[in-house]
Write a structure and sequence with these properties.
homotetramer, 117 residues, mainly alpha, 2 strands, DNA-binding
Chain lengths: 117, 117, 117, 117
DNA sequence: GTGGTCTAGACCACC
DNA sequence: GTGGTCTAGACCACA
């Protein structure tokens, strides 16, 4: 996996996992890769994945069963979906509209880009 | 001014200035606030504004007249506008569409939000 | 049974058993549940209960009759009682008093709580 | 500083700091030692203190001013006090009373210990 | 100077 | 096997 420089790696891994859950690839209550396995497959340090998992656990997206590993939270998909939709409508979209005006993009321009994507 | 935690303050100040220029509030060749004044009015450290001005100067958005202060570059508005439109269509918009799919937002949803804003 | 996160599960099970013995529910020389049964009824791993029993055996609280199972030690109740009273007066109580001062609880506050419990 | 084996060092440092705040030694909005300084004076690793500070920040006990350091939260003393009093009355005290009954300690025994401490 | 992050590697308790 | 913690040391962005 490639990582952007602008953001902490452990947060990029968290986003990667949230997308897996959002897309339904990792269903509720299912075990996710062990810290060591994920670290190895992403080519990052063990402690970096530890940080990701601690972060997601604190967000109640995943949880730990002692000695067994981490599992997808029972309401994780819905929780992530709602949090992200909330952020989308209240932060991303207003910022988008602000930029559109500033840069003279119309809704039609966006539509055209959407159809050609 | 309030600053987000996720981004460097000096870059948020740079955006703030670019928007002033884009909107035509600060026309070409006009003097912009001194480092000390801007730092005071934004409530940030002097060095932080120095960094912003160095950054914008290096981007050829502003320039320095020794002993007089910083001024808006002659082609600044157009330069900023083109760079931002470029970034908008090639980075912001694709990312927007990706999120829309992940979160089940349609183009109609965006239109509706646009009309109600 | 619910387990606290702050302490090892096998130790929490050991406390559970010691309380049974202290309260007289499990008298001396009486057989206690098999490892498998207890593990099943508590919803924990077999090895975890094995560890509890080994721990309690080493503390001379329970003992093993080969092929028959584990039994409550002959002097277990008195032994557990003395060890816990010792710990109570020399560790729990001093720590209690320290917290009381820090949090402005008086002995009267404790008495009041005791009467209303 | 001496650390117990039974608990993570970073949490023991967090308790140490909370007691400083509770006792009024570190007032609201006052800067606390830098990560490096505290690590050096406690004889622990830099990262261990980083963990403590992240933990306390997440608990809203301290907060960060970028480039300046960590500061005691504005309502920190009251917040810590309330959280600990809550824990005291609802966890420590009930557990105390349970143990008292199990070990045949009376309220008078506790009083006597308190007066002789 | 400040904190934030990452790597490398170790030891431990636990299941 | 699993995660949890700690050390050591490095580099970076930031004020």
């Amino acid at each position: 996996m490639e990582f952007a420089e602008s953001k902490a790696i452990y947060l990029q891994i968290a986003e990667f996992i949230e997308e897996k859950i959002l897309a339904g690839d990792w269903p509720a209550d299912e075990r996710i890769p062990s810290v060591r396995d994920l670290a190895a497959s992403l080519g990052v340090n063990y402690n970096t994945v530890v940080r990701t998992y601690e972060f997601l656990q604190q967000q109640e997206v995943i949880f730990n069963r002692r000695g067994l590993g981490y599992f997808v939270g029972l309401e994780a998909q819905e929780r992530v979906r709602q949090r992200q939709r909330e952020e989308f409508t209240h932060k991303i979209i207003p910022e988008l509209f602000r930029k559109m005006e500033l840069l003279s993009f119309s809704l039609e321009d966006i539509s055209a880009l959407y159809k050609n994507k």
